[in-house]
Design brief:
By secondary structure, the protein is an alpha/beta fold. Helix content is about 40%, strand content about 15%. The protein has one domain: Aldolase class I (TIM Barrel). Helix 9 packs across helix 10. The protein starts with a strand and ends with a helix. Bound molecules: iron/sulfur cluster.
């Protein structure tokens, strides 16, 4: 079994999104942890599928990213998720050389500089590496569709469509409006097979977690089973989702049977959140429905 490793390199962010559920306490990976992570990853390279810098704004600790990547010794399947604000020429060229997949997160709360970013993507030959995380908030559904259309018109074809979970209430009206947006994008994906929708097509089932089936190395070198531990909704699960730390565990020794237990813990948390607020369950069901819808129409067209 191979794992996708997510490394938390900083717990700071230069944005303050109103839908943010992430605990921001301004830490940065220490030199000691950095070295231990590198040693751990090199020792376990045979069990690592990809290595991703994610959560908060990783480019705030760009020098640490550079250091880690430069010292890892396995085939370079590095990925990063960024809000794009801290990009400069040297980072763009590092993206070209080191990263296999780059996720740009965009929402309706911040200005996204389409032309500028597009120019850099073209200049550095990154078109085949870029995914857009399109974050959709309630009451902003149509604006998100406009964002999608602008990117689509610029010939971008890879997306995560991410309605905000757990932090903003979705009224019936919002869900209806979201379903119109989803149907538009999925019908387009049915006609245009170059359009790739992460999660919808990968899993044939929608998952609220951005990074399921991954292991998380936290800023203090502890390894957790889920990204939920980074959020206000899930931080109470730190003890139950804690696997071990990078100094003392090897990936081959993780008991696969325990993974089922971790999945159960996450599913119970989701259920308890769903029972508190009914629209969360409705939103999840709707996204499941569209995932099946897309895969069914694709199957029928074969
Ligand atoms: S949602 Fe992401 S980009 Fe926005 S404030 Fe939170 S960590 Fe930063």
């Amino acid at each position: 079994m191979k794992y996708n490793i997510i490394l938390h390199i900083t717990t700071s962010c230069n944005y303050n999104c109103t839908y943010c559920d992430v605990v921001k306490d301004g830490q940065r990976i220490s030199q000691d942890v950095r070295e231990s992570v590198i040693e751990f990853a090199n020792k376990n390279s045979g069990f690592i599928e990809s290595f991703k810098f994610f959560w908060w704004e990783p480019l705030l600790a760009y020098k640490d990213i550079e250091y880690v990547c430069d010292n890892l010794q396995f085939p370079k399947n590095y990925q990063i998720v960024t809000n794009t604000t801290l990009l400069n020429e040297s980072i763009w060229s590092y993206f070209r050389d080191m990263f296999k997949i780059i996720f740009f997160s965009i929402d309706t709360e911040h200005i996204f500089e389409y032309q500028k970013i597009d120019t850099f993507i073209q200049q550095f030959g990154l078109k085949e590496k870029v995914f857009f995380n399109l974050i959709i908030s309630p009451w902003q559904e149509s604006e998100s569709l406009i964002q999608f259309q602008r990117l689509y018109d610029l010939w971008y074809r890879w997306y995560n469509i991410l309605p905000v979970y757990f932090t903003k209430p979705w009224s019936h009206k919002n869900l209806e409006s979201l379903s119109i947006v989803m149907k538009y994008i999925l019908d387009l994906a049915h006609k245009d097979h170059s359009l790739k929708l992460y999660w919808f097509q990968e899993n044939n089932w929608y998952d609220t977690s951005l990074v399921n089936h991954s292991l998380f190395i936290d800023i203090d070198w502890k390894i957790y089973y889920s990204d939920m531990v980074s959020t206000f909704s899930g931080r109470a699960l730190k003890n139950s989702l804690y696997i071990w730390d990078v100094k003392t565990i090897d990936l081959w020794s993780i008991e696969l049977s325990k993974i089922q237990d971790y999945k159960k813990i996450i599913s119970n948390l989701e259920k308890s959140l769903y029972s508190k607020v009914s629209w969360q369950l409705q939103l999840h069901k709707m996204m499941d429905y569209f995932s099946i819808y897309l895969n069914r129409i694709n199957d029928q067209s074969i």
